[in-house]
């Protein structure tokens, strides 16, 4: 599912295989963290992450971030390195979650929270405090975006004018994206689509107003 650069080093067995993630910018630039290989762990390339955080440069400082399918934690850690105010990392795999906790400890990331949970169950509960930036980079071919996106809207996880980054299969269409999510940036390769949206509150409220007037 994630992120930062991941380089596999030869090991005797699949269970023992390890790699590294490297933070590419900010206060922890160049820091390398060891991770275990896990089925479904799909790193975003260094080049694409650099592009993404160039896109996010005007808003990342002091942003409150939610990394919904955290995996290696690369997006959440990169955001923290670039002075996001806070990051909440959600991960369902117990081994991966423990590794994320270790990484946060190594980096002394006091403004981060790692939650070992099923992301969809967590998003289904009422929001206590909304987020400025939400990362959606789930395991591919499981249809998780079709569940996560409605939950984010229904439970009001977004701050005003929030940004949403989605990484999905290149074949994934925009049909399920709400009309008030405005596509800002997009890059599509042979297998992966990278998209950045802004949730425009004005259009959302105007749509709700029109519906109420028509009743």
UniProtKB/TrEMBL annotation:
Record's keyword annotation contains Transferase: yes
Any coiled-coil regions, as ranges: none
Recorded superkingdom: Bacteria
Keyword Methyltransferase: yes
EC number(s) given by UniProt: 2.1.1.171
Annotated GO MF terms: 16S rRNA (guanine(966)-N(2))-methyltransferase activity; nucleic acid binding
InterPro entries named among the record's database cross-references: DNA_methylase_N6_adenine_CS (IPR002052), RNA_MeTrfase_RsmD (IPR004398), SAM-dependent_MTases_sf (IPR029063)
PANTHER family per the UniProt record, alphabetical: METHYLTRANSFERASE
Similarity comment: family membership: Belongs to the methyltransferase superfamily. RsmD family.
Protein name: Ribosomal RNA small subunit methyltransferase D
